[in-house]
Amino acid sequence: MLMKRKLLFVLTMLCVALGAKATDEAWYGYYKGNELLGYFGTGGWGGRQHEAIILHGDDVVCQGKKIKAVRFRVQGTDAMDDFYVWLSSSLPTPGDNADIIRVAVDKATLVDHEFNTVELPAPYEFEGKDVAIGYSFTIDDASSYEARYPCYTTVDGIAPEGALYDWAPVVMSAWQSYGDRMGKLAVQVLLEGDFESCAAAPSDFGDYKALAGSSATVSLPVSNYGLQPLQSFDYVVTTNGVDSDEQHFELPDPFDIFTGSTIVELPLSADAEPAKAVKAITITRVNGEPNTISSSMRTASGSLTTIAEKSKQRVVMEEYTGTWCGWCPRGTVGIEKLRADYGDEFIAISVHTRQNDPMEIMAYSDITSTIYSYPVARLNRDLEGDPYAGSSSKVYGIKDDFEYERSILSEAAVEISATWANADNTRISVNTDVTFQINADEAPYSLAYVLLADGLTGEGAVWNQANYFYYFTDNPDYAEGTQMGEDFAYYLSVGTESIEGAAYNDVAIAGYGIVGGLANSVKAPLTAGQTQHHTYTISIASNGLVQDKDKLRVVALLLNTESGKIVNASECSLSSITDIVRFQSENNDERQESIYSLNGRQVTRLQRGLNIVRRSDGTVVKVIR
After folding, report:
1. How many other C-beta atoms lie within 10 A of the C-beta of residue 207?
2. For the residues of 45-90, what is the DSSP string, one character each?
3. How many angstroms separate the first and last alpha carbons of the chain?
4. With contact defined as beta carbons under 8 Å apart, do 429 and 418 qualify?
5. How many other C-beta atoms are found inside a 10 Å radius of the C-beta of residue 403?
6. Which of 201, 316, 353, 595 suits 186 as a labelling partner, its CA being 20 to 30 A distant?
């Protein structure tokens, strides 16, 4: 702590000595220098290639600065010829027609993987107009991997407009923007001018939840816009126009990447009222000095929902799969392991689709039309990844994703029951209770239902499960004694790439309100602690995927209609009603909690004939009066 205080004192003195601004130099670009990098290129085409970024005229960092040099990372330099670095008022067409500066680079000076720096013959003064910065080269022999993918880009695949443009005339007719798919081009410019010394800007931090009387830990992105390392900052939290007292935060380690972003973990206290509140976090001081960043950049927004009481939470995995998909057994293994580890806290929905899969249903078509690689799993329609390896692509990584979703508080409890609504068991009466733990004038929520079937089988090749693990029996990652060898033992040993007689569980065979939910299934206003009841009738008379009525289940999904995420869920089996009770008196069962007619309508008293009674212990019985 003493060393931190000394460093903070030194940084503060630097800020004071230099004043608000310092005339200096700094490397700048979309790529900050600390991101994980991957490779980008045309594959095996070779030929002339042009890569660029665009710094926009309204870029606050570039205002009043001069560009003195350009640096970039590439590989495969042995295969490159006619290398140029250039600046242009727009993306040049043709690619070698840069209209500001064009500098030839001796290929003998180029170094693979490291930064290559090219000084401009004269500094370029940024005048508030867009400027394209790029490099061009020719590859005649693209036989090596490095020559096929010579450019470095970040691997996050998320970048603002301007972060990556590519033009390879042999395969493309014009410049294309790839930042939103391939990340940021590893290019930076050396800026000279007056820079802020101690300045920081937070970014919007999203939605968080906290139980009443506790706090949430907010992951706040903070960018350092000062030339001095970011060591500490003071901030104010604003709720509904009311500012908190100024609070102080010290980073565990100084952050010294100019315009780079780091994540800090800030506590955000729950409010007195159980409700959603818009929050603003304003950084007022940096390293003990006033934050000199533009006032429009000092504040980040988000929200905190204070929840009155904790509800039972269940995490839903919607697994997108197909009998034709040889990697899709990964989903079966992931589901089996999560169910073994978490029991009824986990709900699996297997959505079959594409290539004549006999279990495909149209209810999910709006979602499956946006999925292009299989298998894939979405947890609570939030995290997405492999149904076994998860978003981290590691052995049983889906467990980490599950734990993350499990840690997010739900603002409502959901409980479902379902019974047969007619004598021939072709109609299902569904009853769902939703108990919110927040107050709200609006209700951006709705219910959706999914009918699941277990043990589905069929004849013909379309019912066979493709199995690529048949080819991995000699792969050391799947060797006996390894976790994946144990997890995938059946698929490794089954001895075929097409499994006949496969039985499929957790299969979605019908859906209702899958995207957006059912209209008016949740009504405003919401009051903490009050339960809303919803009834729905499902007909299975014409559903050709119903094979065994004793193996059907119904899932209720509570959707947030603004975010599209699943807030909470519940599932039940139709076999959960095990007793038929003959009526004796209105008060003979102290466990009696709610009564429903066979069409799902809640009533206050037992009706003549057959009634459905939900007890306080969670059981459901049929009562004949």
Report:
1. 16
2. --EEEEEEEEE-TT-TTTTT-EEEEEEEEB--GGGEEEEEEEEESS
3. 75
4. yes
5. 12
6. 201
Say which residue the tokens 């699996």 belong to: 348
Q: How many Cβ atoms from other residues are within 10 Å of residue 344's Cβ?
A: 10
Q: How far apart are CA 309 and CA 413, in angstroms?
A: 10
Alpha-carbon separation of residue 520 from 71, 419, 437 (angstroms): 58, 22, 19
Q: Using the 8-state DSSP alphabet, how is residue 334 labeled?
A: H
Q: What is the length of the chain?
A: 625
DSSP SS3 for 182: helix
Rounded Cα distance, 83 and 64, in Å: 30
Closest CA to 165 of 128, 135, 202, 192: 135
Q: Residues 451, 507: contact at Cβ < 8 Å?
A: no
Contact 104, 89 (CB under 8 A): no
Q: What is the pLDDT of residues 43-59, one digit of tens each?
A: 878 899 999 999 999 99
Whether residue 232 is predicted with pLDDT greater than 80 in this model: the reply is yes
Q: How far apart are CA 138 and CA 84, in angstroms?
A: 10
- Per the CB < 8 A criterion, the answer to whether 46 and 216 are in contact is no
Q: How far apart are CA 620 and CA 417, in angstroms?
A: 8
CA dist 232 and 27 (Å) reads: 23
Residue 574: predicted pLDDT? 86
Of 53, 44, 121, 141, residue with least CA distance to 90: 53
Beta-carbon count within 10 A of 122 CB: 9
Give the number of other Cβ atoms within 10 Å of residue 31's Cβ.
Answer: 25
Residue type, 159: A
Q: Quote the percentage of the chain above a pLDDT of 70.
A: 90
User: Is residue 408's pLDDT more than 90?
Assistant: yes
Per-residue tokens: 508? 């979605």
Closest CA to 212 of 164, 272, 152: 272
Residue 577 has pLDDT above 80, yes or no: no
CA distance 26 to 256: 12
Mean per-residue pLDDT for 264-291?
97
> pTM for the complete prediction?
0.79
Q: What is the pLDDT of residue 612?
A: 74
For the chain, the maximum distance between any two Cα atoms, rounded to a whole number of angstroms, is: 99
Q: Do residues 323 and 358 make contact, with C-beta atoms less than 8 angstroms apart? A: yes
